[in-house]
Amino acid sequence: MLLILFTSTLFLNLGNSLICHQCEGWRGAKEQSEKENSCWKLNNNCETSVYCVKITEPMSSSATYEPFKSECWRQNILVVGPGNSTVVENGCYDVIDQAVPPKKWKYCFCDTADYCNSEGHAGIFMVLAIFIFIIDYL
Predict the structure, then answer these.
(1) Which UniProt keywords apply (predicted)?
(2) pLDDT number for residue 86
(3) 18: number of Cβ within 10 Å
(4) How many folded domains does the chain comprise?
(5) Which residue in 107, 101, 120, 118 sits closest to 60, CA to CA?
């Protein structure tokens, strides 16, 4: 009975909103003395009815890591440059600010699945959590 309740709650939540990772981290080799990667924690998430987004800040070619931020996006417009905006769709956009020299970010949007803005580990953790729940139930 408990397994049926858990499964039905999981599927009911899928239809209501999109669950996204909400964290800051980096990809690549970074000194461990630096800030902790909050994306390693499984409970960092948010809900939206629009898009999940992953914002990366490209570093110099000699950098060994690339910082990123994953979060919910609650609108369908993105300002991609001074005086220039676009309607957001699934995919990536280069965004440039007005600083001198201009700073550039890459915004990648998705609404295809829960946690679609992750580093790819969320699906493994979800399957593992369901497996542990079933084993514990039996």
Answers:
(1) Signal
(2) 94
(3) 22
(4) 1
(5) 101
Q: State the amino acid at position 57 in one-letter form.
A: E
Would you list the DSSP string of 71-109?
EEE--SEEEEETTEEEE--SEEEEEE-SSSSPPEEEEEE
For residue 41, what are the contacts with CB-CB under 8 A and spacing of at least 6?
23
What is the chain's Cα-based Rg? 18
- The model carries a pTM of 0.69
pLDDT digits (tens, 9 = 90+) for 55-107: 998 877 777 788 899 999 999 999 998 889 999 999 999 999 888 888 889 99
Higher pLDDT residue, 53 or 40? 53
